[in-house]
Write a structure and sequence with these properties.
This protein has a single domain, classed as nmb1532 protein domain like (Four Helix Bundle (Hemerythrin (Met), subunit A)). Helices cover 84% and strands 0% of the residues. Helix 1 packs parallel to helix 6 (159-178) and helix 2 packs antiparallel against helix 3 (72-102). The protein has six helices and no strands. The chain is mainly α. The structure holds fe (ii) ion (FE2) (2 copies).
Length: 186
């Protein structure tokens, strides 16, 4: 498997998380109610899978391979976008309880929406980058990057952690389907 295919596989999981971020933003906008424990779970998934694992792989092993090439600027721009995502997630994480106390549900819905929009645009841009990357970075180099990915996976995404993430995601997907706010006259 190439490093790019490996990241594309991660992206399938990132898209599942993205769907939950967007869905919960809609639920909160539609009902005015914040399912706090669910939102906290989403933030844990973002932190554990997207930030500390997937973006880490891209930043530490994948993007550096195009240093000095015509793709370097684009790789740097993608890393700047990661930083934007981190800031949005951190802001929501740090302020969640205070916003709920002082401002109600709207800022929570707005931050989730901002994160979903960021992630959508970022993934789309990155998928285009992947195609150019594969044209430039040869198989041998990609297999070295895969070795680095294996190390990161051992260190940051053991089987137990992955099982936990998958079960949290399953649970959120089930619960999100149960919020029928449109039928409650809101
Ligand atoms: Fe990325
Ligand atoms: Fe990515």
């Amino acid at each position: 498997m190439s490093a790019t295919s490996n990241l594309r596989e991660d992206h399938r999981m990132v898209r599942r998380i993205h769907r939950m971020v967007r869905r919960y933003s809609e639920i909160i906008y539609g009902s005015g109610y914040v399912p706090v424990e669910d939102v906290k779970k989403i933030l844990i998934l973002v932190e554990m899978f997207i930030d500390a694992y997937h973006h880490f792989k891209e930043e530490c092993s994948y993007f550096p391979a195009v240093k000095g090439s015509m793709l370097e600027d684009e790789a740097r721009a993608l890393m700047v976008e990661h930083e934007l995502g981190r800031r949005i997630a951190r802001m929501l994480n740090m302020n969640l309880d205070a916003w709920l106390r002082e401002q109600g549900s709207e800022p929570v819905a707005r931050m989730l929406k901002a994160y979903a929009e960021y992630l959508y645009v970022h993934m789309d841009r990155e998928e285009r980058f992947f195609a150019s990357y594969d044209a430039m970075v040869q198989e041998q180099e990609q297999s070295k990057i895969m070795d680095a990915f294996d190390t990161i996976r051992r260190e940051r995404m053991g089987d137990d952690r992955l099982r936990l993430i998958l079960s949290m995601l399953d649970e959120l997907e089930q619960r999100a389907g149960g919020y029928d706010y449109d039928d409650q006259g809101s």
